Amino acid sequence: MRIASIMMAVAMLAACSGDKANDDTTTPPVDTDTDTDTDTDTDTDTDTDTDADADTDTDADADTDTDTDTDTDTDTDTDTDTDTDTDTDTDTDTDTDTDTGGDSGGDSGGDSGGDSGTVDTGPPDVCPAQFASTVPAVLTGDTTGLSNDFDPSCVGGNAPDDTVEFTAPASGDYLFSTIGSDFDTALAVTETCLFATELACDDDIPITGTTSEVVVSLTAGQTVVAIVDGFGSNAGLWQLTIDAVAASETSCDDSIDNDGDLDYDCRDADCAGNPVCDEDCSNGVDDNGDGRTDCNDPFCIANEPACVEDCSNGIDDNGNFATDCNDVQCDLDPACAEICDDGIDNDGDYATDCYDEYCDGHPSCVEICDDGVDNDGDFSTDCRDDDCDGIAPCGAEICDDGVDNDGDFSTDCFDSDCAGDPICGPEICDDGVDNDADNTTDCADVDCAGTVECPLVCPTEVITALGSYTGSNVGELNAFVPNHPDCVGDGNGPDVTYEFTAPAAGNYTFDTIGSTYDTVIYLQDSCDPATAITAVCNDDAVGLQSEVSATLYAGQTVIVVVDGWGSSSTGDYVLNVN
Q1: Is there a contact between 199 and 216 (Cβ–Cβ < 8 Å)?
Q2: Measured between alpha carbons, how far is 405 from 220 in angstroms, rounded to an integer?
Q3: What is the largest CA-CA distance in the chain?
Q4: DSSP 101-113
Q5: Phi-psi domain of 40 (left: phi exceeds 0; alpha: psi -120 through 50; beta: other)
Q6: Which residues pair with 507 in a beta bridge?
Q7: In 3D, which of 101, 238, 258 has the Cα closest to residue 161?
Q8: How far out from the chain centre does Cα 473 lie?
Q9: Cβ-contact 138, 241 below 8 angstroms
Q10: What is the DSSP string of 347-385?
Q11: Coil/strand/helix, residue 518
């Protein structure tokens, strides 16, 4: 009876001693293990975890746990128990307790605000943000509050941008238009989100002045990325229409070049006769929306007698602010033909004599190759005029006489005419001579990178963390030259390479601020000098230091090249990754 009373008291005590932090009402674990260790804990084991599972072992048990609960918490268990037993309370809180009563809800209060297991990608933006693979497709979005991840070649500024990945359902020409957007857009189509060869770019089409449109030829299954950007800092609601290019203009009032012939709506000959393209020739309004008003409109020139220009009366007869030969209507009038040797702009196109394209081929406009005169008006004189190539005294370039024989400002091996001439290369990588005349010798010549004489080490270093990295390019190879329109002629110095893997999705900035020489920095997709694609490149962003940015997905790897501007651009560099 006494034993039964003690057991009942113990049971009641256990029922009242639940986890206070979690306010569990469930039965706490009783530790039914059959361990053999004698648990020398002083262990009141109140496990003062900052997490809610306070594991309140009062553990008066001399139980000899082999304890299957490995309670592996990362929380800050201040555990006073000295537990020399074999139960490995290493608490990273995977709560694999076999207990069925304790810790109900599994650390529901623990680690608040800590390691939530999610990554906030935020700006910069996910690319691509939307997808399309059928036509016609109309997609919408909003660039307000997004980041400026791309810099299309046809527009400047720092406007935010958005992206759509499109997969062509069949081979053909596809039209991309931002008609319907509520801000001044720019539109580019690239091959990928990062290593992007730009396929097309447009700021404004003639019709609206703020709408963008491009046509791209694609093969079936080919995937491209459309970048909806803004002029300057413009942002707002956008609409992107993607459709196959039609055989002819299918609508004459949608502000879309449906047939991709660069003529829109009523400007397209396909719309001739369409009622929406009739112009009232005297109301001062562009009735048919072709960007031309009254007598400036082709409809009125063809159909309204009052809009015909008399080409020799000194009067703007048709009211289009162009008089006589300056009016486009008079281009073919004999009175407006250019006389090619009288020093007068006869046809009023602001080009005189041989400088007028009308005079191309005229006997007075043939280049004489040794008189010091620009006879044909193309701003090139004598041997510097392409018309004189191969004509004495402007013979072909002699590649080893130190003379610019063909007058193109390039001498000997520096002249492209000498490419392939045995005198001009290829580069021999260990003779101390600039064999191909590119101002770089032996291993400093990119042609020698990866040869036996000049073995290539790429990457120089592998990095996965943000921070600053330092070193020197003195004695390094000129292994890479950027193939990018932003760095034409740059990157001819020794270079070093870093392989960087993005730890999370986001926009990353790489700069050389703090370096001691004129740097060039660029990102590429591989270490192969022959096939590497340059994604982004910059020469001088801050003084002589360089900076590029790119949006990367988690786990994406790029090669960061820290290059010198020229062969003498050497010294200590700093690479900052943010």
Answers
A1: yes
A2: 50
A3: 135
A4: SSSTTSSTTTTTT
A5: alpha
A6: 551
A7: 238
A8: 27
A9: yes
A10: TSSS--GGGSGGGTT-GGGSPPTTSSS-TTSSS--GGGS
A11: coil
